[in-house]
Amino acid sequence: MHDSVNVLGGELGLCSAAPLTGWFRDGCCNTDARDRGSHTVCCVLTKEFLEFARGQGNDLITPVPEVGFPGLRPGDRWCVCAQTWQDAADAGVACPVVLEATHEESLAVCDIDALQAHAHSAD
């Protein structure tokens, strides 16, 4: 795997190992040509965002054990589809974003100013 770059121009950081996230389930928001949804934005999920995504037909709340999907809760970190995050931002319900773990490919869809405005601050 090549070294991936984040939206800040640095090395792509880990998004989440528990729950294990990413298109490749490697904990990072890496992507490739098969990832049609561009699962590249590392989010700290909120109740409002999860409900928005479910309303768009992307249910991240309900577990799907047969594919190893645990179901997500507010506070979990997850690589979400760039368009879903941008749509949520446009609707005023964007969740915080971990910029260091958000893949540069997300910039094809997401506005960098919006991403930065929702940057998650590590305490």
Short description:
The chain has 3 helices and 2 strands, in the order βαβαα. The chain is an alpha+beta fold.
For the biggest β-sheet, the strand order reads 1-2
Structural class: alpha+beta
CATH topology: Phenylalanyl-tRNA Synthetase, Chain B, domain 1
CATH class call: Alpha Beta
Mean pLDDT: 94
Count of runs of 4 or more consecutive helical residues: 3
In which range does the helix fraction lie?
A: 10-25%
Are there runs of 5+ residues with pLDDT below 50, and where? none
Using the alpha-carbon principal axes, give the shape.
Answer: globular
Annotated CATH architecture: 2-Layer Sandwich
Relative strand content: 5-15%
Number of DSSP E strands = 2
Euclidean distance between termini CA atoms? 30 Å
Notable characteristics:
123 residues; alpha+beta; Phenylalanyl-tRNA Synthetase, Chain B, domain 1; two-stranded antiparallel ribbon; globular
Structure, described:
It is a single chain. The protein is built from three helices and two strands; from the N terminus they run βαβαα. The protein is an alpha+beta fold and 123 residues long. The chain has a single domain, classed as Phenylalanyl-tRNA Synthetase, Chain B, domain 1. The radius of gyration is 13 Å and the shape is globular. The model has no long low-confidence stretch (mean pLDDT 94).
Give the topology, please:
Layout: E1 39-44, H1 47-55, E2 77-81, H2 82-90, H3 112-117
Antiparallel strand pairs: 1-2
